[in-house]
Amino acid sequence: MGMSVTISVATEQDAEQIFRLQYLCFQSEAALYGNYRIDPLVQSLDSVRQEVTSDCVFVARLGEEVVGSVRGSVTEDGAAAIGKLCVHPRLQGHGIGARLLRAAEGALAEERGAKKFRLFTGHRSEGNLRLYRRVGYETVGTSKGADGVPMIVLEKPASTYATTA
After folding, report:
1. pLDDT block averages, 10 residues each, the chain of length 165
2. Are the beta carbons of 25 and 31 closer than 8 angstroms?
3. Which H, E and C letters describe 75-113, residue by residue?
4. 30, 65, 125, 142: which could form a disulfide with 36 (CB 3.0–4.6 Å)?
5. Which residues are within 8 A (CB) of 14 and not within 5 positions of it... i.e. 6 or more apart?
């Protein structure tokens, strides 16, 4: 009998699993850019712990194992910055990333008053771009990450999250 993946708010006890999962998941992004100093790979466990307690963080669980996560926080301009969306490589392509994204969008709009959602992804990250566009995000610009990776900036109004949920 198979188990289903559940989405829930992350707890402090999840921080270490999120940290390990993030390190595993972002290896492919680092390889894509030939840059193993990207933020998700150099972030400290203490920093992940702090994000879990202060930000809007959701996890996907398969039994007791954290197999996906996403984080978000509302910025001064009322936009919700969503980031570090990751799903264990063995479970990618099954809609878990979209479910995590919807959970974060819902909480950020309903509980934290976000007016729009904003995320960044590397310009070569075609799988990420497909997902984000499929759930209603549109390219609004480009930027360069602190690690030097060219990024695409995508946004969508918070009022649309319910229609893509």
Report:
1. 84 97 95 91 96 96 96 92 96 95 95 94 93 95 91 92 51
2. no
3. CCCCEEEEEEEEECHHHCCCCHHHHHHHHHHHHHHHCCC
4. 30
5. 52, 57, 59, 66, 69
